[in-house]
Amino acid sequence: MSSPTRKVTMIDIAHEAGVSKSTVSLVLQGSELVKDDTRDRVLAAMDRLGYVYNRGAANLRRKTSEVLGMVINDLTNPFFAEIAVGIERALQTAGFIPLLANTGEDPSRQARVMQAMREHGAAGFLFCPAIGTDEGFAHEIMSWRLPIVTVMRRIPGVDFRSVAPDNVGGARLATEHLIGLGHRRIAFLGGRPGMVVMEDRCQGYQAALAAAGLPADPGLIVEERPNRDGGLAGVGALLSIADPPTAVLCFNDAVAFGALHGLWERGLQAGRDLAVVGFDDIANAAHTTPPLTTVAVSCRTLGERAAHLLLSELRGEPTGDHIGEVRLVVRASSGPPGQDRYRPNT
Prior knowledge:
Elements: H1 10-17, H2 21-28, H3 36-49, H4 55-62, E1 67-72, H5 78-93, E2 97-102, H6 107-119, E3 125-127, H7 135-142, E4 148-151, E5 161-165, H8 167-180, E6 186-189, H9 196-211, E7 221-222, H10 228-239, E8 247-250, H11 253-265, E9 275-280, E10 293-297, H12 299-314, E11 322-324, E12 326-329
Parallel strand pairs: 1-2, 1-3, 3-4, 4-5, 5-11, 6-7, 6-8, 8-9, 9-10
Antiparallel strand pairs: 10-12
């Protein structure tokens, strides 16, 4: 045991663990060149000696930072929370420190937290842009000349690397499923104007209708908040029109949950009175009443891919955008059109 009056050095750790000083340095840097058993010996020696690694001083010596900003638009949404888990796991495995902030879909808060993270030495950013993020802000953070990767939501006109699921393909897959069940009046519910994700998913929905020779009725595209409240309000609006749809593709699972609740309030049931399909396949989707048909997205995998993309940017390696695979998970909320479907005037 070293004297309490003397600071423990890497030489002390190397002697205690029976390795070289350079090996200790590699362990502290999180290098994959060190064998697992050797790393364990070094870490055990550090614990015995009470050594604390001063990352701030190391960053000053290398003129780099191991802190990376994680700016998430809505951590109350399970989908984005799962993305954050994937990002954090990948960054910590690589030896980086994630600095997390939740913007609550507020662009002004987003600007403040990203500036604060920059002032605290963040070496790069992974962020899910808040609704309303404009091109001006994007160009401002681009001027910082730091690696930046957007997750889920691209910002048009700005050349950030991005990671997102196949929104167009997923929406087309879901709409084709509903057409195959016999539905001809299919609505699209949720999302706000200017949201790239909504535009992509609506594009896939409309492409499937066109391929089947079905008209895209503008009255069946309902813009609403991308959450439960939006789904609740939107399904009420759809059911109140003279010729309501027999099926609805929701912007995401949260909107679909609101739609299911709206049907329940009216004594109706998804899959029988109105086919409902979500998008994301978050954990609760399999446990609704009835269980929700949805387009499955691997949230954690998207988060991990985003983190690896940012790390590649930090190393100066060539990178490109990533489009994640999706698949349709069919459950009880989507059934064929009923013979006596709901009409508001009966």
